[in-house]
Amino acid sequence: MGFEKFLFYCFAAMTVAAAAMVISRRNPVHAVLWMVVAFVSSAALWILLEAEFLGIVLVLVYVGAVMVLFLFVVMMLDIDIATLRAGFIRYLPVGALVAAVMLIEIVLVVGPAHFGLAQFPAPAPAGVAVNNTHDLGMSLYKDYVYPVELASVILLVAIVAAIRLTLRWRPDSKYIDSARQVRVKKGPDRLRIVKMASVGPAEMPAASLAETKE
């Protein structure tokens, strides 16, 4: 076993272990931190596969931005852990059955019968002049442009649905009325000028004059 294969098995085992810790931790903050470990080990696997751009993007975008946002959201939410895990034992058999079916499907799809060395032999090592960022962009936006656009539309619909499900209208909440802002006119709607006559020190009240001197 070469050193590269040894690193692959180490990072792969770390990824699986971190993913198991994500779904088994009672504390949501600890689960998010284990997810960071899973992303970092996955980035190391991408780098071992000579996809340096994907590995760096995974660390910068997900670990450096998305996971920090997740961590702040989880820390600010008041999550009732007891209520959240109340039905865990009740639905455990159903969850185990669904997990077993998904595992069997994954093995049947990505098993050696479809993704073995006979169907996909090991590629030759890429040279220094190979630009994997350019190759990835050409593959995404030329060969698979329609699946990429379809995935973006699905993500947009998911974002709109999540906002609609979590949006709560309260009578005491303060919000900006965009239609009223557009209809505003200059004059009394925006600015009111009050003309006041200037007074000298002799005409000012005694209290105001004392405050002015101080």
Automatic annotation (TrEMBL):
EC number: 7.1.1.-
Principal location listed in the UniProt entry: membrane
Domain of life: Bacteria
Pfam families per record: Oxidored_q3
GO cellular component, one term: plasma membrane
Keywords linked to the UniProt accession: Cell membrane, Membrane, NAD, Quinone, Transmembrane, Transmembrane helix, Ubiquinone
InterPro entries named among the record's database cross-references: NADH_UbQ/plastoQ_OxRdtase_su6 (IPR001457), Nuo/plastoQ_OxRdtase_6_NuoJ (IPR042106)
Zinc recorded as keyword: no
Transmembrane regions listed in the UniProt entry: 6-24, 31-49, 55-79, 91-115, 144-167
Catalytic activity: a quinone + NADH + 5 H(+)(in) = a quinol + NAD(+) + 4 H(+)(out)
Membrane topology: Multi-pass membrane protein
One Gene Ontology term of the molecular function aspect: quinone binding
Function: NDH-1 shuttles electrons from NADH, via FMN and iron-sulfur (Fe-S) centers, to quinones in the respiratory chain. Couples the redox reaction to proton translocation (for every two electrons transferred, four hydrogen ions are translocated across the cytoplasmic membrane), and thus conserves the redox energy in a proton gradient.
Subunit structure of this chain's protein: Composed of 13 different subunits. Subunits NuoA, H, J, K, L, M, N constitute the membrane sector of the complex.
Family named by the database record: Belongs to the complex I subunit 6 family.
Name assigned to this protein: NADH-quinone oxidoreductase subunit J
Classification lineage: Bacteria, Pseudomonadati, Pseudomonadota, Gammaproteobacteria, Chromatiales
